[in-house]
Design a protein that fits this description.
By secondary structure, the chain is an all-alpha fold. 69% of the residues lie in helices and 0% in strands.
Length: 97
């Protein structure tokens, strides 16, 4: 019996996998969402840092291409290129301390 079938037998909606209903590895959906957001922010910042080491006039389009994320995803996490730069500066300051 699959996880989806077990979920249906438990009275839940049949299309919701059991792992999502009870949390995966003991984590709730909120914890997984927060973890996914942290990973996405890190992907964006890592891509921006790689690009900025070669050229300071990097735009959102270049970061989009380097990170393999959509522009909408980047703007969901950072309001502008300047916000990415500030976050990178904070990251560098933390590294130096």
């Amino acid at each position: 019996m699959s996880a989806t079938q077990r979920a249906a037998n438990d009275g839940a909606d049949f299309h919701v996998p059991l792992a999502l209903r009870v949390g995966m590895n003991g984590r709730s959906r909120v914890e997984w969402r927060d973890l996914r957001e942290q990973v996405t922010r890190r992907l964006i910042l890592d891509a921006a840092q790689r690009l900025l080491t070669a050229n300071l006039s990097v735009g959102i389009r270049e970061i989009e291409a380097e990170s393999n994320l959509s522009r909408g995803t980047i703007y969901r996490h950072f309001a502008s290129r300047d916000h990415i730069l500030v976050e990178l500066q904070l990251r560098w300051v933390d590294f130096l301390e």
